[in-house]
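Q: Okay, next protein. This is small monomeric GTPase from Cynoglossus semilaevis. I've checked the sequence twice, so it should be correct. Can you predict the 3D structure?
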Amino acid sequence: MHKFELHLNSIFCVSVCVFLQTILVGDSGVGKTSLLVQFDQGKFIPGSFSATVGIGFTNKVVTLDEVKVKLQIWDTAGQERFRSVTHAYYRDAHALLLLYDITNKSSFDNIRAWLTEIHEYTQSDVVIMLLGNKADMSSERAIRREEGERLAREYSVPFMETSAMTGVNVELAFTAVARELQQRSVQQPSEPRFQIHEYIDAQKEKSSCCRVF
Ligand SMILES: Nc1nc2c(ncn2[C@@H]2O[C@H](COP(=O)(O)OP(=O)(O)O)[C@@H](O)[C@H]2O)c(=O)[nH]1
Ligand SMILES: *[C@@H]1O[C@H](CO)[C@@H](O)[C@H](O)[C@H]1NC(C)=O
Ligand SMILES: [Mg+2]
């Protein structure tokens, strides 16, 4: 959807006002499907969702202030990187959640390749958020939080650690990108830009859950 349509939708909305397409990407096993299930159903279903073949989506409506935002979240299977997510999905995406597994170094090392691919095929104004998932598995941690933060800073994308198991930061990850996009869609060019980094930091401080990371 183009910005102009988003803008009109925001003005004339009745129930669901803004429609946003979000894609979950990252290597196989990082927890993309688990994160989506946690966000959608508020629970963790252990075991691998090897049944995720190709690409499928879940719709979820979140209310930001008084505006209802419909997130259409596409879950991808990461095995066939550079192929399974067709470029058309990238092109239409408003936001991208890019995951690695904090216990798995190769999933982190591949983030640069993912970002290269993403920058090549997405719209230039796509919202990208880097997520270090499985934050509950601290005893098996292979990637320090600072390493995630540094990489995110290098690419100027927001970052947080999440746990699809405990639910830590899961809702925040989705609502932060929704808020960023929703603000952009209603914003006049002269207004100051919504600062997603500041929003996340403020939300993190509010909820005691996130201080442990
Ligand atoms: N401890 C823990 N395990 C997780 C978490 N997220 C996913 N997993 C597990 O990691 C494995 C891969 O998860 P899955 O959602 O299928 O990953 P996907 O291939 O990226 O969709 C499964 O065994 C999940 O139960 C998490 O946050 N914490
Ligand atoms: C780590 O992630 C890679 C993909 O980046 C995967 O092939 C490998 O099986 C994972 N290792 C473990 C121990 O989960
Ligand atoms: Mg999956």
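A: Here is a summary of the prediction. Residues 1-5, 7-11, 208-213 have pLDDT under 50 and may be disordered. The first helix runs from residue 3 to 12.
Q: Noted. On to the next one.
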